[in-house]
Specification:
The protein is an alpha+beta fold. The protein folds into two domains: 245 residues, Rossmann fold (3-Layer(aba) Sandwich), CATH 3.40.50; 110 residues, Trefoil (Acidic Fibroblast Growth Factor, subunit A), CATH 2.80.10.50. The protein is built from five helices and 25 strands. Helix 1 packs across helix 2.
Length: 390
């Protein structure tokens, strides 16, 4: 059994115990990536390599992730029903021509974040202007943050989205063209006015305006999503956020994929961690379990008592609460009744080994298994890596 298979099986064990009926028309997804130029994009690629096979197992499609862009040259729908660009676009003329033929003959496309970027050195007029409709890249927000989106159109990909909702953390792009003026483009979701300002750097934030985030080109079977850039501790090459740990956003991804591939719609839950499960939180470094026997959370030898059983319950966007009985974990390492404060909100971030690190909403610090338990800069240390065990 390969390491990747073991990781996927471990993650599947945490999913809600919902039976998903196999789809009668399975389809094939072929995802291209380059793994450059930003560690935040590479982190997204790595997360996709775990999450999409997991989703494929649940929803009845096959998934392959490759850096071999030459496969586009003579690609047909017999080879792939859906093509993804995770972090780049092809640069070779033959590969570009092959992709254009593919989508013009009914092949489906799902693009993420950096695949929509262009500059004077990255130009593809048909893709930028005709297919995406964006024209030239203008700017981006910084640093990566969540955004509140307004759902602008009801289509198969957005059928389960609320009117307004919070995204996962990402950097956000804007472009030259107003997509509302293009009759071929239908914007599916855009930044809601309540979200401003978007960004934390005053010189790279959006304070007002119209910013499309999700859209489709009605002349093709395609979707584009502007998310796909993790928050990072660049010095330690450690992700501080997870694109695929937002149940609402994940509904868009799953419903969009099923529409693109011709799969059967689903109403299955999309929580990455079963909110009903009472899990032991086992540290990879010490092998000990998070323990709530006292008001101050500690680590102790693992047992089966209620003090070592925690529930990860989704709140909004990528954030969740971590409950031990009637009390919730705070970023001061105390257990107290949940009051909705930011100090009781966390992100559970995928690791390539199947573990998780647990990151605060405020300050993006990692839960760290020391004596006493503490928060520290996220570095990828085993003291910050946890298995969630039933």
């Amino acid at each position: 059994m390969t390491k990747l298979v073991r990781v996927i099986l471990a993650l599947l064990a945490l999913l809600p115990a919902t039976v998903v009926t196999p789809h009668p028309h399975p389809f094939t997804v072929l995802a291209f990536y380059s793994g450059r130029p930003d560690a935040a994009h590479i982190a997204f690629d790595n997360e996709a390599a775990i999450w999409f096979p997991q989703a494929a197992s649940r929803y009845g499609f096959s998934y392959q992730q490759t850096t071999d862009w030459s496969l586009l040259t003579d690609l047909t729908r017999s080879r792939a029903d859906v093509v993804m660009f995770l972090d780049d676009i092809p640069t070779d003329p033959g590969e570009r021509a092959g992709f254009q033929r593919y989508v013009e003959h009914g092949g489906a496309y799902f693009g993420f974040h950096y695949s929509g970027y262009n500059d004077p050195d990255i130009t593809w007029p048909w893709f930028n202007n005709t297919f995406m409709g964006t024209g030239q890249f203008v700017n981006n927000t910084w640093s990566p943050t969540t955004a509140v989106l307004h759902t602008d159109a009801r289509r198969p990909a957005t059928r389960r989205l609320p009117t307004t909702w919070t995204t996962a953390v990402s950097e956000w792009y804007s472009w030259q063209n107003d997509l509302r003026q293009n009759p071929d483009i239908e914007v599916l979701a855009s930044v809601d006015a309540s979200s401003f300002p978007v960004g934390t750097d005053p010189t790279q934030s959006w304070y007002s305006g119209y910013y499309p985030i999700l859209w489709t080109n009605k002349r093709y079977r395609m979707l584009y999503a502007n998310f796909g850039h993790e928050a990072m501790n660049y010095a330690a090459n450690t992700p501080l956020s997870s694109t695929f740990a937002n149940p609402v956003q994940d509904k868009f991804i799953i419903d969009g994929l099923l529409w693109l591939g011709g799969g059967t719609p689903t109403n299955a839950p999309t929580d990455q961690i079963d909110p009903t499960a009472r899990l032991r939180v086992v540290n990879a470094g010490s092998g000990m379990c998070l323990d709530g026997s006292t008001q101050a959370v500690t680590q102790d030898t693992c047992g089966n008592g209620a003090a070592q059983r925690f529930r990860f319950r989704w709140l909004d966007g990528p954030y969740l609460r971590i409950d031990n009985g009637p009390r919730s974990l705070t970023d001061s390492m105390q257990l107290s009744p949940f009051d909705g404060g930011d100090n009781q909100q966390w992100q559970a971030v995928f690791e390539s080994n199947g573990n998780w690190h647990i990151v605060t909403k405020v300050g993006r610090k990692c839960l760290t298994a020391t004596v006493p338990m503490t928060l520290a800069t996220c570095t990828g240390s085993p003291t910050q890596s946890f298995t969630l065990a039933r």
